[in-house]
Amino acid sequence: MTPDLGHLAAAPIGPIAPQAGAAILSVWRRRVSRMVAGMVHHIEVWVPDLKRAVGSWGWLLEALGYAVFQDWPDGRSWRLGETYLVLEQSPAMTADRHERLRPGLNHLAFHAGSRERVDELVAGAVAHGWVVMFPERHPYAGG
Question: What is the pTM of this model?
Answer without folding.
Answer: 0.71
